[in-house]
Write a structure and sequence with these properties.
- The longest helix is centred in the first third of the chain and has 8 residues.
- A 7-stranded antiparallel β-sheet has the order 5-31-30-29-28-27-26, with no helix packed on it. A 5-stranded antiparallel β-sheet has the order 2-32-37-34-35, with no helix packed on it. The chain has a 4-stranded antiparallel β-sheet with strand order 1-38-33-36, with no helix packed on it.
- The protein has about 500 residues and is mostly beta strands.
- β15 and β16 form a beta hairpin.
């Protein structure tokens, strides 16, 4: 009898769960689960000494990569494998709950934390960040928003939101000009969003923009003329309760609202977490540190990912401990245990033998395959700032994977005597069988069984209801985990 590893559904009960309650350190593919790899740092000794409060990786028009990390009182740039401060003479004075937004506008990188005046960095020219006001004073017309928390690029405008003393306001730059902010000049203007939607917490980029408030989503369309932008409320009573839960793959946007996870697909707001992971996440999240949540999209594997601190995380320094993973093609969830302070889409520069030495003094100890694009080109990866505040990518060895079948009654109205489990996994795996005779009973576990030369895990376990827990050891090389094939015979009737 074959039992597949079904969809991870922790919000459902163990019995009659159409999926499974365990899918750890894996992500869902079309017909199987695949492994999550560990983080491998590729920067050297880090000068970053605090929790990352924002990060971004960008390419200029010469294909040069610029990676920045913001903390509560500094901004760092990754150069030749080392983070170095690029705040220059600026004072950065954010608090523990303030986060940085980094937005690319042409050759400019705009950084803001809502506490200090916004800053800019001109790729290929700047040595340090400078105030956006200084750019406006030298090249532009009018003053910039004094302080803003979030920003995005919609068409040819930098659109900012959550302005100081006007948390429901958006303000945009002049057409193709972030040095111009005077209303009416080069189509620059501002708009206060009406109603009770709360603060602006995120702005997406693209031909169409989406403005996320705490309890509202507004679509932003360029129309030109004196109007410039048309504002259309898409979701009047649902927004992003935590701004850093908003992540984007073109016009597919994912976010966490007060009532769970949703996907904005075009103009449709679709529930993706209801009766799947919403209750799990709400109970597992350490609500004392919601400011530490970050999110990113891995477009190659079609994954939306949220890094968050769980309630069981003993670390109070800002390092999170879990990834919640959603495959937006298969519409299936999973979870991983990873310690990091930030995740983001990260370009990795072309590397040299010298940079290999930064990662490891011994080439045999380097976990990043020498055949990957990591070593040859500026490739886009899902990146992170790890628990030691180093730049890292998910290219290490496979983490210990754990999967569990749904609980099933193999023989109706009878106990089952289970004698063997064959994991349908392209690796050696260990198996524990969990059984019970009544739903009110405590689950009984078999002894952990290793795979023999025939690919069978011998077990001796009896019960009316059973499920199989399969663990693939850390470091194992494997590609697909699909389910189990079990051998059992009917026991006594009940």
């Amino acid at each position: 009898m074959q039992l597949p590893f079904g969809e991870w559904l922790p919000d459902q009960p163990d019995h009659l769960n159409p999926g499974a309650t365990v899918a750890t350190n894996v992500y869902h593919a079309q017909t199987s689960y695949k492994p999550v790899k560990g983080l491998v740092p590729y920067s050297g000794t880090s000068n970053v000494t605090q929790n990352a409060k924002g990060a971004g990786s960008f390419r200029d028009n010469t294909n040069t990569v610029f990676t920045f990390v913001g903390t509560k009182n500094n901004i760092y740039k990754l150069t030749s494998g080392t983070f170095a401060s690029v705040k220059g003479s600026l004072t950065i004075s954010g608090g523990d709950t303030d986060f940085f937004t980094f937005t690319q506008f042409g050759q400019y990188i705009v950084a803001s934390n809502g506490v200090n005046p916004p800053m800019y960095y001109l790729m290929g020219t700047s040595s340090n960040f400078a105030t956006l006001q200084s750019l406006a004073d030298s090249n532009g017309s009018g003053t910039v928003p004094v302080k803003f928390k979030v920003s995005g690029v919609v068409r040819d405008f930098l659109v900012t939101g959550n302005i100081e003393n006007a948390k429901n306001r958006v303000q945009w730059s002049g057409l193709n000009d972030i040095s111009t902010w005077e209303a009416g000049v080069k189509s620059s203007d501002l708009q206060d969003l009406p109603g009770s939607g709360g603060q602006v917490v995120a702005i997406t980029s693209g031909e169409v923009g989406y403005i996320f408030r705490q309890d509202q989503i507004t679509r932003l369309d360029f129309v030109g003329g004196s109007t410039v932008f048309r504002f259309s409320v898409l979701s009047p009573n649902r927004g992003a309760v935590y701004g850093q839960t908003v992540c984007q793959d073109n016009r597919q946007v994912f976010f966490y609202a007060s009532d769970g996870f949703f996907q904005l697909n075009g103009d449709q707001v679709l529930p993706i977490g209801a009766e799947k992971v919403n209750r799990f996440f709400e109970s597992d999240l350490n609500k004392a540190y919601t400011d530490r949540i970050t999110s990113a999209v891995d477009p190659f594997n079609t994954l939306a990912i949220w890094l968050y601190p769980s309630k069981d995380n003993p670390n109070t320094t800002g390092v999170c401990d879990k990834l919640l993973i959603y495959n937006y093609v298969t519409q299936k969830w999973s979870i991983a245990k990873i310690k990091a302070s930030q995740i983001f889409k990260q370009f990795v520069v072309a590397n040299t033998v010298e940079l290999m030495d930064i990662i490891s003094s011994n080439i045999d100890d380097i976990n990043i395959s020498l055949d990957t694009a990591f070593w040859t080109t500026g490739h886009l990866y899902l990146g992170a700032v790890d628990e030691n505040f180093k730049a890292a990518i998910f290219s290490g060895t496979n983490l210990e994977a754990e999967l569990e079948t749904k609980e099933t009654e193999i023989f109706p109205n009878a106990r089952a005597d289970i004698t063997g489990i064959r994991p349908i996994v392209d690796a050696n795996a260990n198996v524990v069988v969990k059984t019970r005779d009544k739903l009110a009973d405590t689950v009984t576990l078999s002894t952990s069984s290793s795979m023999n030369s025939s690919g069978i895990n011998p077990v001796r376990q009896s019960g009316r209801y059973m499920r199989a827990n399969v663990k693939i050891p850390a470091g194992s090389i494997w590609s697909h985990a699909q389910g189990i094939d079990l051998t059992a015979s009917p026991g006594g009737n009940r």
